[in-house]
Design goal:
By secondary structure, this protein is α/β, with parallel strands linked by helices. It has two domains: 13-100, no CATH class; 132-236, no CATH class. It is 37% helix and 18% strand. It is built from seven helices and seven strands, in the order βαββββββαααααα. It has helices at residues 28-34, 132-148, 157-168, 172-180, 189-204, 206-216, 222-236; strands at residues 13-16, 38-39, 47-54, 60-71, 98-100, 110-116, 124-130. Strands 1, 2, 3, 4 and 5 form a five-stranded mixed beta sheet that branches. β6 and β7 form a beta hairpin. α2 crosses α4 and α2 crosses α5. The relative contact order is 0.13.
Length: 238
């Protein structure tokens, strides 16, 4: 389903990595380096950039930014503060992939999709793409965590706009049914429950709808935004 609302550009490309599906070779780090990518920072694993340039204030930035992230629940670390992925074979390098809580459902709730290169339509690749329930939980979890722990990063109005877009093309009952299948999962259940708690907090917060309205300016009827958040709150149980 297509929404008749403006598209919003993103600052980077997020790619999920499921450690259990990754072998020893080829090395993720070597592949990215050969393609011209470098670490945007050594303080956090998984952040890659290509075509560096200097901002007006002297800081270094990149024209292309890619984040490689594994679900925390499958990363091999129980710590919430450690960002690495011990479950990956050492050949990939300690900084190749980071982990984030909230991506767990995306490792299971996904479909194989043929992606076509924007620049050269002759180039295609078959990739696993997360389904809407997994995307809603990932986005809601990211927003909820950052609202509680601002040091994890800023929450932008665009984030709430993105959440509204996802909810607008999904059925809340079916979404919660899919999520519910993983609440007690032996590997990711704990993190899925935490993600649900964070997402629920975002849906119940009246400020969320207001920030989504700001993101869309006048392109979306404010009453439609209020109505959708109310519908999802009701489905969640108030």
């Amino acid at each position: 389903m297509d929404l008749d609302v403006p598209r919003m550009p993103t600052g980077d490309g997020d790619h999920g990595v499921t450690p259990g599906l990754v072998g020893d070779v080829p090395s993720i780090e070597a592949l990215l380096a050969d393609a011209g990518y470098e670490h945007r920072t050594t303080a956090r694993p998984g952040l890659w950039g290509r075509t560096a340039y200097d901002e007006a204030d002297g800081t270094r930035s990149f024209r292309e930014k890619v984040d490689l992230l594994a679900p925390h629940g499958l990363s091999g670390t129980a710590s919430r503060t450690k960002r690495g992925v011990p479950a990956l074979p050492p050949a990939h390098g300690k900084l190749a992939v980071g982990n984030a809580l909230g991506l767990e459902l995306a490792a299971f709730n996904r479909s194989r999709v043929t992606i076509t290169d924007f620049a050269d339509p002759r180039l295609t690749a078959d990739l696993h793409v997360a389904e809407i329930p997994a995307l809603i939980l990932a986005k809601g979890s990211k927003i909820g965590e950052r609202l509680r722990e601002p040091r994890k990063g800023p929450v932008r109005d665009k984030d709430l706009g993105d959440l509204w877009r996802l909810m607008a093309v999904a059925d809340p009952g079916e979404t919660f049914r899919v999520i519910g299948q993983f609440i007690e999962h032996p590997e990711v259940g704990v993190d899925v429950r935490q993600s649900v708690e964070w997402t629920a907090g975002v849906l119940r917060d009246p400020v969320s709808a207001e920030r989504a309205k700001t993101a869309f300016d006048t392109f979306v009827d404010p009453t439609a935004i209020d109505g959708l958040f109310a519908q999802w709150r009701d489905a969640l149980g108030g």
